[in-house]
Specification:
homodimer; 204 residues; mainly alpha; Arc Repressor Mutant, subunit A; Tetracycline Repressor, domain 2; DNA-binding; Tet_transcr_reg_TetR-rel_C_sf (chains A, B); TetR family transcriptional regulator (chains A, B)
Chain lengths: 204, 204
DNA sequence: TGCACTCCTGTACCGCCGGTAAAGTTTTCT
DNA sequence: AGAAAACTTTACCGGCGGTACAGGAGTGCA
């Protein structure tokens, strides 16, 4: 029972790295079993087909993603009582974490799967949608807290501001990969941070 | 000679749609020749291999992309002498164009190719990098023009602000695909527009 | 001790796909 | 009319996703 989960995790590790590097269609089961050190039959013992691998991959990724945000913004909340300060600290902590990744951000599975949507079934597309909605809910709650204390200088929707966090992260990942400049991602996040500070800064 | 280019364009059209929908690895040559109505040998007459197809695809995409930006921000420049107003008008025109796409944005080839980077050779990765650098140069020039007239309320780098345009576009594409809300992309662009207006708005 | 269950391996097979090779045919330009 | 361009036809190769099924090794427990 423990052994099985270990092998499964090894397959998922290899698959995640491969999918983020070459796309889902570009990742072969054969290369995964070579890297994991099992046989093809062993692979199909754990996953009925490639689509179920994708599902497991995405499920695990989203859980981990949520955990990271919980930690960072939970910690930020401990460091400041003020919701705006807490959010700004959270963005900074996140930027630092992204800056410390040795080879840059490996890529977002949600992004790779929704930009190759026709390669997956509806269940996966729905998981992707739910993930994006969870991001929205999380950050929209923070913006609403901020708006109860500070008046924004422009009337912007909390949901749209929340989506901006996801947008900057996803876009920053793409841009830093295209440019081959890993630092672009944390830099973009900090530019967004400046915008948020400006938005809620009281008029002089 | 004309006929050849026509067939080539038909293959590229089919390929672009398929790659943006399913990823490069998920797109088969067989499906392209069925849709185009030619034989497999006919395909290989036009493209030595799949990688050369990718190269031609990206080349055409980037040229078209540049043309669109030239048109939109050229037109914006005609409508306003002030560089800030021109840029804000350009963003609005772009948001309107994106809003009018019937099935949402089909996706960005630069993004799909750099999130599947290991599936392509160095030449393509370099083309991707140059495309992102061209975006940066284009928008950085606009921000520098703006900064010669307006003083930003926060000291932000013109290059990083320029990258923010690409970031919001790329991230907006991902988010609107994940959420299955095409309107998110133009909305995000308009949120960014508000930030830019706020940044260069003279202190009251 | 033995049985069941989990966790695999081994073997054999299928059809699709990317790609190659080479000869032949039609269409288009000059 | 002739050359060059733009294909078609046929035949083939190895890799990959996937199926089927038999067998075996390690573990937990009755």
């Amino acid at each position: 029972m423990r052994k099985g989960e270990e092998t499964r995790a090894k397959i998922l590790d290899a698959a995640e790295a491969a999918v983020l590097a070459k796309g889902f269609g570009g990742t072969s089961i054969d290369e995964l079993i070579v890297e994991t050190g099992i046989t093809k039959s062993g692979f199909f013992y754990h996953f009925r087909d490639k689509n179920e691998l994708a599902k497991a991959l995405l499920e695990r990724y989203i859980e981990n993603d949520e955990r990271i945000y919980d930690e960072i913004f939970g910690r930020a909340r401990e460091l400041a009582d003020d919701p705006l300060q807490a959010f700004l600290i959270g963005l900074k902590l996140l930027a630092e974490l992204l800056s410390d990744l040795p080879n840059g951000h490996p890529g977002c599975l949600v992004a790779t799967m929704c930009t190759q949507e026709r390669a997956f079934d509806r269940e996966i597309q729905e998981m992707n949608r739910q993930a994006a909605l969870m991001w929205r809910r999380r950050f929209a709650a923070m913006f609403r807290d901020i708006m109860q204390v500070y008046r924004p200088r422009e009337a912007l929707d909390a949901d749209q501001l929340a989506d901006m966090v996801s947008t900057v992260l996803e876009g920053g990942i793409v841009l830093s990969k295209a440019l081959k400049e890993p630092q672009s991602l944390p830099d973009q996040l900090l530019v967004f941070r400046s915008f948020v500070r400006l938005l809620f800064q009281p008029a002089a």
